[in-house]
């Protein structure tokens, strides 16, 4: 059984006042999740639920060691979940608001890329090729030149 990529979605998140790396990273992961619809897993592949789904989150923040990994993994609603944290994102000058975070004036920005992959057996791998060889929904014949 081969694992094939199905979708890749990016997201962005920030913590404006607390310099909280987890909060910014979590917002980036949630932003990615909110932008992708995986109906093709059910409708095209004919599955009855999200079995055989793998979701890998790659998240970049200025201080990756300060991120709560389990919180990010919990934000991914389906699949077998994996996570890579790396240094990246951005720190920008902000405004210190003592009530939100004393002596913290930097804005933390994080970015995330979620890759959704699926386990494909030989039958599922061949189905899109067979469909492409026939007539398309527009009435055109695939492969005609």
Q: How does this model look, in words?
A:
The protein is of the alpha+beta class. It has one domain (2-124): 2-Layer Sandwich (60s Ribosomal Protein L30, Chain: A), CATH 3.30.1330. The chain contains four helices and five strands. Strands 1, 2, 3, 4 and 5 form a five-stranded mixed beta sheet that branches. Helix 3 (69-74) links the parallel strand 2 and strand 3 (80-87). The longest helix is centred in the N-terminal third of the chain and has 14 residues, at 21-34. It starts with a strand and ends in a 12-residue tail after the last helix. The model has no long low-confidence stretch (mean pLDDT 85).
* CATH homologous superfamily title: Tubulin/FtsZ, C-terminal domain
- The structure class reads alpha+beta
Number of helices: 4
Query: What is the general shape?
Result: elongated
**Main beta sheet:** 5 strands, mixed
**Secondary-structure element order, N to C:** EHHEHEEEH
Count of distinct strands: 5
State the CATH topology: 60s Ribosomal Protein L30, Chain: A
Beta-strand fraction estimate:
25-35%
> Residue-averaged pLDDT, rounded?
85
Distance between the termini: 34 Å
In terms of quaternary structure, what is this? single chain
């Amino acid at each position: 059984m081969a694992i094939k990529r199905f979708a890749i979605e990016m997201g962005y998140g920030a913590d404006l006042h607390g310099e909280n790396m987890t909060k910014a990273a979590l917002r980036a992961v949630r932003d990615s999740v909110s932008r992708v619809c995986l109906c093709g897993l059910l409708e095209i592949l004919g599955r009855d639920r999200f079995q055989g789904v793998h979701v890998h989150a790659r998240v970049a923040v200025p201080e990756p060691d300060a991120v709560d990994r389990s919180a990010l993994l919990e934000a991914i609603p389906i699949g077998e979940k994996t996570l890579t944290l790396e240094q990246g994102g951005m720190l920008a000058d902000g405004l210190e608001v003592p009530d939100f975070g004393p002596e913290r004036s930097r804005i933390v920005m994080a970015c995330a890329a979620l890759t959704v992959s699926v386990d494909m057996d030989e039958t599922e791998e061949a189905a899109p090729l067979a469909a492409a060889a026939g007539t398309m929904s527009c009435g055109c014949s695939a492969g005609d030149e």
